[in-house]
Amino acid sequence: MPTFMTYVVMLSMKCDTDRISIDLSSSIRDNDLPVSFVGLPTSDLFMMGKPDGSDGGGQRVRGTLQIPQMIKEYRLNGAISINNVGNAFTPQGSCDPLTIASMGVGLYHAGTKQDAQLLYECVSTRAKAAIGYSTNPFAVGSDADFVLFEMNGDEQGPISRQRGRRTLQEVVYDPPKERKTIFRGHLIIA
After folding, report:
1. Four-point Cα dihedral 75, 81, 83, 89, nearest 10
2. Dihedral Cα 82, 83, 85, 91, nearest 10 deg
């Protein structure tokens, strides 16, 4: 359980990260404020860019909170997530955090090894930090929380058997279906 109060700033729709001033980010960091920014890209992409009937549908400007940029340029904590699936704001998508990270590769033009690491953090350790949980999964004497991924391509289906995942980058680019979750030191059976 969290031991301190944390605040999550949920900014949705198209939010211009250039407007987040250096003063604001400095104030958050300098005062060690427990503020995190959480982007909801699946909702943002669905709700934004509905074409005006008169433009023929050719103009569809869409966007979302630029979480990787906020982390890199402003050194703020951020995460990406999905709020609800199957409602009026997000009728599509998956609640799988790795699917959201994978979507971030194209959405944020994040194709490097470092980008994949950051996107993974945005749905794991940074997401936990945003809600006030410790991000150290392997503290001596405490129960561990982690996920084991199928790395050898042993999943069912012709494509999965051919494609092993040997790096975190490959896991983010093509999330494996087979996983084992260890929560508080116990295997969770799905």
Report:
1. 90
2. -90
Extents of the domains making up the chain:
1-48+61-133, 136-190
Q: How far apart are CA 146 and CA 168, in angstroms?
A: 14
pTM of the prediction? 0.80
CATH number of 1-48+61-133: 3.20.20.140
Q: Which amino acid is at 105?
A: V
Over residues 27-85, the pLDDT tens digits come to: 888 998 888 899 999 888 888 877 777 766 667 778 888 999 999 998 999 999 988 88
- Tell me the C-alpha to C-alpha distance, in Å, between residue 168 and each of 33, 36, 68, 107, 119: 30, 24, 17, 19, 10
